[in-house]
């Protein structure tokens, strides 16, 4: 077989895979074909001559000690030192005996086997390249066209060369799709199933999907001026996003919301009207937790078990703000807890919060003397 590199280049172009991967598939196919024609235990090496653009095959036998167990198990790949010395007195353990192996000498059988093996290994290489390509996109947004919706509410989409599956549990409650619709979703996993082959698992409910949508809508997030530190969602209902900027000239909340809310509204529309609260992150837990419970006005926050897996925050709050802190069906406090990583417990205290946000007790403004929340500033 002459000018094998020309043939490999043509195959690489046809299969849309790299020439290097096509070359590896060819070497593997030749090796497997040679083993079919001899024994599965035989060892072969395929050499490519880039100058003549041809290939050659050599059978390799390795010299081992006379009592090596591999002599019985793989007699076609190993030879005892005592036997090898018959070829040359200078042979040592570890040396290799090589002999040319010409596939063409085996006629049509070799050609048929090589064709089958090459077709198989090229297909495996195509699938491997595709797997790696989509694996690198895990955690990003993909766009697909709906091809089918089954009785269980699972939505099947066409995304490039692969199929994507948006299961009902990964779909925002209340939304529905029809065949032909174009949808955006987060690529969660690339799965390979023996029955269904390779497919993409999609999600529209993951917090990461919200973060990716915001990154696409907000240039300041794309260029790193604003960073998303954390996010939490009750899909289709409400979400909270913690934002941070190290640049004094950039307002992270203003950048995310946009003029007249145009940016955040675009994200909300994609999430079926989900309400999104943008919160400025603070490295001081007490301040961060206070902001996360917005729109409720908090009186005081005490952190317990700081830095452990069971860290907890006791939040003092007046009765008129408690309902806001909890939110409808407990949504606000749940989102705040998921966002901050603290188990939040509300402790109702006397007093009310007037329209200016001040808490009053008996007509006097209460002034706090607790400075523990500022301790982290001086570490």
Structure explained in plain terms:
It is elongated, with a radius of gyration of 33 Å. The strands form five sheets. The chain has a five-stranded mixed β-barrel with strand order 5-6-7-9-8. Strands 1, 2, 3 and 4 form a four-stranded mixed β-sheet that branches. The longest helix is centred in the N-terminal third of the chain and has 29 residues, at 107-135. The model is unreliable at 362-367 (pLDDT under 50). It has three domains: 4-135, N Utilization Substance Protein A, Chain:P, domain 4, CATH 3.30.1480; 141-203, Beta Barrel (OB fold (Dihydrolipoamide Acetyltransferase, E2P)), CATH 2.40.50.140; 207-378, K homology (KH) domain (GMP Synthetase, Chain A, domain 3), CATH 3.30.300.20. It has 379 residues and is an alpha+beta fold. Helix content is 33%, strand content 29%. The protein has helices spanning 4-15, 19-37, 70-73, 81-84, 107-135, 207-217, 219-222, 252-257, 262-270, 285-292, 319-326, 331-340, and strands spanning 44-49, 54-64, 78-80, 96-100, 141-149, 155-159, 162-166, 182-193, 197-203, 227-234, 238-244, 275-280, 300-304, 312-318, 343-349, 352-353, 359-361, 364-365. It is built from twelve helices and 18 strands.
Low-confidence stretches: 362-367
Query: What is the CATH superfamily label of the largest domain?
Result: K homology (KH) domain
- CATH class of the largest domain reads Alpha Beta
Average pLDDT level: 87
* Order of strands in the sheet with most strands: 5-6-7-9-8
Q: What can be said about the biggest beta sheet?
A: 5 strands, mixed, barrel
Put simply, the count of helices is: 12
Strand content of the residues, in percent? 25-35%
Amino- and carboxy-terminal Cα gap: 73 Å
Q: What string gives the helices and strands in order?
A: HHEEHEHEHEEEEEHHEEHHEHEEHHEEEE
């Amino acid at each position: 077989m002459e000018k094998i590199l020309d043939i490999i280049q043509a195959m690489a172009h046809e299969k849309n895979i790299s020439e290097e991967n096509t070359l590896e598939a060819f070497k593997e196919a030749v090796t497997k074909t040679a083993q079919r024609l001899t024994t599965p235990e035989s060892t072969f090496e395929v050499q490519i001559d880039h100058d003549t653009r041809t290939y050659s095959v050599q059978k390799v036998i390795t010299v081992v000690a006379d009592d090596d167990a591999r002599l019985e198990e793989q007699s076609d790949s190993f030879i005892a030192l005592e036997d090898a010395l018959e070829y040359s007195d200078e042979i040592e353990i570890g040396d290799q005996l090589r002999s040319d192996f010409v596939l063409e000498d085996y006629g049509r059988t070799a050609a048929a086997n090589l064709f089958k093996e090459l077709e198989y290994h090229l297909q495996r290489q195509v699938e491997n390249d595709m797997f790696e390509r989509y694996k690198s996109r895990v955690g990003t947004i993909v766009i697909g066209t709906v091809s089918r919706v089954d009785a269980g509410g699972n939505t099947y989409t066409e995304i490039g060369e692969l199929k994507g599956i948006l299961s009902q549990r990964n779909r925002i409650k209340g939304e529905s799709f029809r065949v032909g619709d174009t949808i955006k979703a987060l690529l969660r996993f690339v799965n390979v199933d023996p029955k269904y082959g390779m497919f993409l698992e999609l999600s529209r409910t993951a917090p990461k999907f919200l973060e990716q949508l915001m990154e696409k809508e907000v240039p300041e997030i794309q260029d790193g001026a604003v960073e998303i530190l954390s996010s939490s969602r009750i899909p289709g209902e409400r979400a909270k996003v913690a934002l941070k900027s190290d640049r004094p000239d950039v307002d992270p909340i203003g950048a995310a919301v946009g003029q007249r809310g145009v940016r955040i509204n675009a994200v909300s529309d994609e999430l079926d009207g989900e309400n999104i609260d943008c919160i400025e992150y603070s490295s001081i837990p007490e301040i961060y937790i206070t902001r996360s419970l917005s729109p409720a006005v908090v009186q005081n926050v005490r952190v317990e078990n700081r830095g452990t897996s069971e860290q907890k925050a006791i939040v003092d709050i007046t009765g008129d703000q408690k309902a806001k802190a909890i939110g409808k069906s407990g949504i606000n406090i749940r989102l705040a807890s998921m966002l901050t990583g603290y188990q939040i417990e509300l402790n109702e205290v006397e007093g009310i919060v007037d329209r200016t946000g001040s808490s009053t007790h008996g007509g006097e403004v209460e002034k706090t003397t607790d400075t523990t929340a500022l301790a982290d500033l001086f570490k």
